[in-house]
Amino acid sequence: MRVGLGVDVHAFAAAEDGRKLVLGGVDIPFDRGLLGHSDADVLAHAVTDALLGAAGLEDIGHYFPDTDARWRDADSIGLLREVRRIVGGSWEVANVDAVVMCERPKIRDHRDAMRKNLAGALEVDFSRVSVRGTTTERLGFTGRGEGIAAQAVCLLQER
Ligand SMILES: Nc1ccn([C@@H]2O[C@H](COP(=O)(O)O)[C@@H](O)[C@H]2O)c(=O)n1
Ligand SMILES: C[C@@]1(CO)OP(=O)(O)OP(=O)(O)OC[C@H]1O
């Protein structure tokens, strides 16, 4: 068995930038999206780095550099699916647990849709993926509504 940890942070764009807010592959109705070269799906990125860490591979920026136009506005669930392929079939995802930190939006309204998207990319049953939201009690950059942070752990077991 091997465990990996992924952490990611993205800043909110200005409302007039018209960026969509995408978390765990879910388009969330919200007044602002996150800044990024890709779709800035901070949750998918944390899960991707947790999977890569568990597998002892390079990080997300190695496989999908933000200097490469191919990844502009990329669907990060698609990138996670690609990383699952890179990790290979000798490793099975035992479980993933992820936390999204923001005051708003409420994650619990969307968590099952996020779990479904993440589990699909990871080729595991929905029950193996957990997602939760928490505020930081208005403290720090997440508390001020400047951005969203996500952390994830991934456990891999040999088939
Ligand atoms: N972005 C968020 C923040 C919180 N939640 C839900 O609210 C509960 C209480 O959060 P606290 O930070 O006040 O402890 C939390 O357990 C979540 O159920 C959320 O969904 N999305
Ligand atoms: C997937 C990538 C591709 O540019 O997305 P970004 O939106 O740049 O997000 P970040 O989490 O800063 O780095 C990961 C990148 O590899």
From TrEMBL:
Alphabetic keyword roster: Isoprene biosynthesis, Lyase, Metal-binding
Note on how the cofactor is bound: Binds 1 divalent metal cation per subunit.
PANTHER family named in the record: 2-C-METHYL-D-ERYTHRITOL 2,4-CYCLODIPHOSPHATE SYNTHASE, CHLOROPLASTIC
Gene3D superfamilies: 2-C-methyl-D-erythritol 2,4-cyclodiphosphate synthase (3.30.1330.50)
Recorded superkingdom: Bacteria
Gene: ispF
The EC number(s) this enzyme carries: 4.6.1.12
Signal sequence coordinates: none
Function field: Involved in the biosynthesis of isopentenyl diphosphate (IPP) and dimethylallyl diphosphate (DMAPP), two major building blocks of isoprenoid compounds. Catalyzes the conversion of 4-diphosphocytidyl-2-C-methyl-D-erythritol 2-phosphate (CDP-ME2P) to 2-C-methyl-D-erythritol 2,4-cyclodiphosphate (ME-CPP) with a corresponding release of cytidine 5-monophosphate (CMP).
Domain 2-C-methyl-D-erythritol 2,4-cyclodiphosphate synthase per the UniProt entry, residue ranges: 1-156
Pathway: Isoprenoid biosynthesis; isopentenyl diphosphate biosynthesis via DXP pathway; isopentenyl diphosphate from 1-deoxy-D-xylulose 5-phosphate: step 4/6
Family of this protein: Belongs to the IspF family.
InterPro entries membership: MECDP_synthase (IPR003526), MECDP_synthase_CS (IPR020555), MECDP_synthase_sf (IPR036571)
BP term (GO), one: terpenoid biosynthetic process
Site feature: Transition state stabilizer: 37, 135
Subunit-structure text: Homotrimer.
Binding site for a divalent metal cation: 8, 10, 45
HAMAP family: IspF (MF_00107)
Protein name: 2-C-methyl-D-erythritol 2,4-cyclodiphosphate synthase
Tagged with keyword Metal-binding: yes
